[in-house]
Amino acid sequence: MGAQIPEPDQIKQFKEFLGTDNKLTEICFLISMRLQEYHIQQNEALAAKAGLTGQP
C-alpha cells in the first residue's frame, strides 16, 4: 500500500479541490445562462419575423 498523506495536507488538497469545483460550477452556470439568453433572443426574433409579437 502507498504512504498515507498527512491530515493537514489532505485538508489543504480538499480545500483546493472544493475551490476548483466551485469555479467550474460557476463557469458552467454562466455558460448555461448565456445559452438560455441566446435561445430566448432567437425565439423572439423568429416570432417577430413570423409576425407573432404583441398578440395575446
Gist of the model:
This protein starts with 6 loop residues before the first helix and ends in a 7-residue tail after the last helix. It contains 1 helix and no strands. 77% of the residues lie in helices and 0% in strands.
Describe the SSE topology.
Elements: H1 7-49
Percent of residues in beta strands?
under 5%
Shape: rod-shaped
**Overall pLDDT score:** 91
Helix content: over 70%
Q: Can you tell me the residue ranges where pLDDT is under 50 for at least 5 consecutive residues?
A: none
The biggest beta sheet reads: none
Order of helices and strands: H
Radius of gyration: 23 Å
How many individual helices? Answer: 1
Overall structural class, as computed from helix and strand content, comes to mainly alpha
Report, as a whole number of angstroms, the end-to-end distance: 70 Å
Please give the number of β-strands.
0
Features:
rod-shaped; 56 residues
Report on this structure.
The structure is a single chain. It is rod-shaped and about 70 Å long. With 56 residues, the protein is mainly α. The protein starts with 6 loop residues before the first helix and ends in a 7-residue tail after the last helix. It has one helix and no strands.
